[in-house]
Amino acid sequence: MKRTTTQLPMTKAPRKPQGGKTETNPTNAEPETGSQPEGPFANLPTWFTQREIIPLDDQLALVVCHETMRQIVTLCRDLAEHPTPVLLTGETGVGKSLLCRFIHASGDPYAPYVSLLAAGLDAPMLLARVFGAGRPETEPDASKTHETLLTEANGGSLVLEEMGDLPLAVQKHLMEYWDARHADGGPARFLCTTNTPPDRLRAPGGLTPEFLARFRHIHVPPLRERKEDIPALVAYFARMGASRTESLKSLEALSARLARHAFPGNVRELESLMALESGGLPWRWRITGGDKACCVRPRVNRASRPSQTSAPHRRKV
Q1: Which residue in 49, 207, 223, 311 is deepest, having the highest Cβ count within 10 Å?
Q2: What is 67-221's CATH topology?
Q3: Using alpha carbons only, what angle is made at residue 119 by residues 116 and 122, rounded to the nearest 5 degrees?
Q4: Domain ranges of the chain
């Protein structure tokens, strides 16, 4: 049998000069690592290339760019796979409710999602709404017509918002429920939020240490401590307001002005401000120092106003 051989093409070895170093063809040299990207994306700002937009529904998304918020998002993804109760603390408007929705969507987005504002509710009302305890005695027909929140959230998530002043009886009932849940699985997982500072939660008269120990605690920093998120949020809210199309340069200029503000209302305040901007209302942003800021309308030229004639003065007879 005739044997067929295939001759591979000869490659020319690099030529060694007298100094002992090997010369390489500059056209075949690999690009150096860490070089700046070229092309149309080279001059884009960091917040534009590193932002993360996580859609939660058609009109809701979680926008993060700051490193701390990225770590929180990673932690929330991990917690979505475990039934451990989660407690999110932070000031009003930082995005605690969005993170609750994100934890829920990262697990099973099609499961029930039930939310209850627990602030100001007493123990009998909370126990009746969540567990159905006490309804047969106080409202004989209520147990037949209304389902408990645990039943509505079966297989999904039950969110207790603003539960910093949760009564002691409810805390004990929840701990008993969680102890029994480890045996039978339980119908729903608990996600809780509060704007009460963590040190006040642990103070006497607040939540008990045994109750707080059941949670995986996540503290969401205010917007003034993560101003890297402001340009990404401004761009997102500007895009959601479809009435105006902002350029990248104008968005950066607006973000630079807004970054000087402390935003006591956090992301919710920024969203309200961008709603005014997208609606085309005549306003301008003026910062007088610190956290003092206001929306003011442009000055009106008094000379253009029509003269108002005063009513004739009546003489007393």
Answers
A1: 223
A2: Rossmann fold (3.40.50)
A3: 95
A4: 67-221, 226-295
Residue 214: how many CA atoms within 13 Å on its side-chain side? Answer: 21
What pLDDT is recorded for position 29?
43
Phi, psi at residue 49, to the nearest 5°?
-85, -25
Q: Phi first, then psi: give them for residue 238, nearest 5 degrees.
A: -65, -35
Nearest to residue 155, comparing CAs of 186, 128, 191?
186
DSSP state of 36: P
CB 132 within 8 A of CB 140: no
HSE-up of residue 90 (Cα within 13 Å, Cβ side): 28
CA distance 136 to 144: 9
In percent, the amount of the chain with pLDDT more than 70 equals 65
Query: Which residue bears the tokens 């009932």?
Result: 173
Half-sphere exposure of 131 (CA within 13 A, CB side): 17
Choice among 23-27, 70-74, 306-310 with the minimum mean pLDDT: 23-27
pLDDT tens track for 97-148: 999 999 999 999 999 999 999 998 999 999 999 998 764 444 444 444 468 9
Q: What tokens appear for 115 in the block?
A: 């939310």
Rounded to whole angstroms, the Cα distance separating 31 from 33 reads: 6
pLDDT tens, position by position, 18-41: 554 444 444 444 444 444 555 555
Nearest-angstrom CA–CA distance, 113 and 157? 5
